[in-house]
Glutathione S-transferase
Amino acid sequence: MTQPAAPIKFYSMHLSGNAHRVLLTLRALDRPFELIEVNLRAKEQKSEAFLQMNPFGQVPVIDDNGTVIWDSIGIMTYLALRYDDGKLLPRDPAQFGQIMAWLGKTSGPIAYGMATARRINLFNAPADIDSAHAIAHDFLHVMNEHLEGRAWLVGGTVTLADLACYAYVAHAPEGGVDLKGFGNVSGWLAQVEALPFFAAMPKAKVGLWAE
Ligand SMILES: N[C@@H](CCC(=O)N[C@@H](CS)C(=O)NCC(=O)O)C(=O)O
């Protein structure tokens, strides 16, 4: 089993769903890592030192003994190819392609739908909530249909597709998106949460979770 030469440095922010999918991947692979919380409010991600690692000035980033990778999807793919035995990212061409398709959704409707609605409520992001809700609902309808009769997004076991899509779907209520009508999606979320390596992203009391 390949082991990192030293604990993998993982630059993260505890409320970032992009970082959370990397956290789940590191935990699924059971490799040692050192979590470094980046203070986004203090703009640490725009410091000269951080920009040397990620010129886009964003978390997540990993440094695996000098190999620096930024962007959650780049990181997950790197980690799976380097440390996984082919379960999280099967090398079967059809399954590989299907997983890539779901990973792509994290930069599309997941980012512009659920994640944007959440950023509006959580961080006062300047964006249109109605448009974010419409994108989120369209995505959830398709995902719910896809999960009919399926436990996982691709194949018969958990893959990077599930780990990548989880956080922003689970936390959609923070953006005011109700998951109640999407029973298959809720069942799939519960499956991910039951995984032995699962760790939750902290819940924020905003949107539908406001008290
Ligand atoms: N596509 C990137 C998005 C990364 C991203 O948006 N990171 C946010 C936190 S969720 C960030 O660092 N924001 C601070 C900034 O842009 O200054 C990924 O998947 O890693």
Q: What stands out?
A: The two ends are 46 Å apart (CA to CA). The mean pLDDT is 97. The longest strand covers residues 8-12. The CA atoms of residues 59 and 170 lie 20 Å apart.
